[in-house]
Amino acid sequence: DQQVKQNSPSLSVQEGRISILNCDYTNSMFDYFLWYKKYPAEGPTFLISISSIKDKNEDGRFTVFLNKSAKHLSLHIVPSQPGDSAVYFCAASVKGTYKYIFGTGTRLKVLA
Amino acid sequence: AAGVIQSPRHLIKEKRETATLKCYPIPRHDTVYWYQQGPGQDPQFLISFYEKMQSDKGSIPDRFSAQQFSDYHSELNMSSLELGDSALYFCASSFHRTSGSTDTQYFGPGTRLTVL
Asked: By the number of CB atoms within 10 A of the CB, which of A4, B18, B22, B77 ranks highest?
């Protein structure tokens, strides 16, 4: 039972264009969402997070949008750079718990 | 900035052997988490500790145990290893905020365990 889903296993984008990574969840108790980037042989690196009381959070080139009614969040990267090529995981958490539930990841490739 | 340190980075064991993985959190972080990531899979939460007490438990086999020590480092002990235990094991740490909001976890580089 995958509570957090990333339905696109891979995505290719031209350098300078926008990358949009999507994530859907099923558990309405989730109230905190995060995006992590992972390079091979490294641990996940925290990118950006959003609380369920917000619908948008922006940090430099990264913006996360949350649509609670659709149980959907997305990560926008503008402009995309070759160094952004990595696997991106979304994660979700229920307030008061200590664990994250991860999605299956989307491999982003930014083409120069 | 200091990050989460995990040791060893790679470990090869035989079936039925035991293994101990170590995690050193970011300084001043008081909470540690363990995750297991199998090939092609998402990280699965195993267990977490806050102030040396178990704070949450996930899909951790009974053959595994963990603890957090007074210096906040943590060890994951794995016994009677099976082939299916071969995976990447990540440790993460955070500073627990008493406001009730969720803490952001920062991950270490992982330990790759191979069971032969």
From this structure: A4
Omega of the bond leading into B8 within 30 degrees of 0 (cis): yes
Sign of CA pseudo-dihedral A57, A3, B112, B56:
positive
Burial of B83 (0-12, 13-18, 19+ CB in 10 A): exposed
- Give the range of the structural domain holding residue B104, as residue numbers without chain letter: 5-115
How confident is the model at residue B67, as a pLDDT?
96
Q: Any residues with CB less than 8 A from the CB of A51 and at least 6 apart, and which?
A: A31, A32, A33, B101, B102
Interface test with B, best of A98, A101, A102, A104 (most B CBs within 10 A): A98
B90 Cβ contact list (under 8 Å, min separation 6): A43, A44, B6, B34, B35, B36, B37, B43, B107, B108, B110
The amino acid sitting at A46 is F
- Provide the CB-side half-sphere exposure for B4 (13 A, CA): 33
A80 CB-side CA count, 13 A:
21
Query: What is the nearest CA distance from B82 to chain A, expressed in angstroms?
Result: 23
Distance CA B79, CA A22 (A): 38
Q: Give the per-residue pLDDT at B101.
A: 65
Which residues 16-35 of chain B have a CB within 8 Å of chain A?
31, 33, 35
Domain extent at residue A32: 4-111
- CATH number, domain of B11, equals 2.60.40.10
Residue ranges of chain B whose pLDDT lies below 70: 1, 98-101
